[in-house]
Automatic annotation (TrEMBL):
Species the sequence originates in: Lelliottia wanjuensis
Family per record: Belongs to the AzlC family.
Upper taxonomic lineage: Bacteria, Pseudomonadati, Pseudomonadota, Gammaproteobacteria, Enterobacterales
Record-annotated membrane-spanning stretches: 21-47, 67-94, 138-162, 174-191, 198-215, 221-242
Matches recorded under InterPro entries: Brnchd-chn_aa_trnsp_permease (IPR011606)
Main subcellular localisation: membrane
GO cellular component term, pick one: plasma membrane
Keywords recorded for this protein, A-Z: Cell membrane, Membrane, Transmembrane, Transmembrane helix, Transport
Subcellular location: Cell membrane
Protein's UniProt name: AzlC family ABC transporter permease
Record-level GO BP terms: L-valine transmembrane transport
Lipid bilayer topology: Multi-pass membrane protein
Amino acid sequence: MLMKTKALPRNEASMEFRAGITACLPTIPGYWSIGFAAGAIGTLAGFTTLQTALLASALYAGSAQFLFYSLWATGAEIASVVLSVFLVNLRYLLMSSAMSVFFRDYTTFQKVVSGLLLTDETFGVAVQQGSQQSKVPFAWMLGLNMAAWLNWILACIVGAWLASALPPSLMEGLSFSLVSMFIGLVLMIWFASRRKALESFSIAAAVVITLLTASHTDMSVVVIVAASVSATLATLGLRLFYRGGK
């Protein structure tokens, strides 16, 4: 009887872990599509498959990895790369704060593990789980995060490996993909936006700042300044829009 009593929590944790993996399944195609591209871009930026795998494991943020590769390829200084990645990943601070209401019963170690493996996709799935069940068990969250993390790493490895197997002449011809990928992302965001005027203004501001400062300072610094100023102007414009709407 004592053995059954002790085994029950372990069985429940195992079931919750598997349930978390199941909840992650709909998001896995997204991890593979973006992770495959991230791995290929890493190879184009001059990284080996092993280095790309290690970066995917440690950094574990698609937008930050793309930014890292592009800045590294342009010869940006380490401080500029670290600061840029930090600014891009600041959104996870807000996500973790929003999830903290479901992490109250977690230990400090469990909170750290859950927070470090949080992504945009797992955040959305976990918030839905918490809203429906009023709780997010740690074993469930761990299963969700681990499934996403491992699939992301594997997708990056496959993308890097296939890109490294291409002939050198074709690799040189694909060097434009870093720039074209970011242009494509910007256009996708613009077409999906409901405030195209504000989006256009922020893009124009970034371009103008870049053109005015590119010849006077390091390009990595220009990227940070242009992105920060344009994002600030867009935020102020959005606040004024809402205030005027009221």
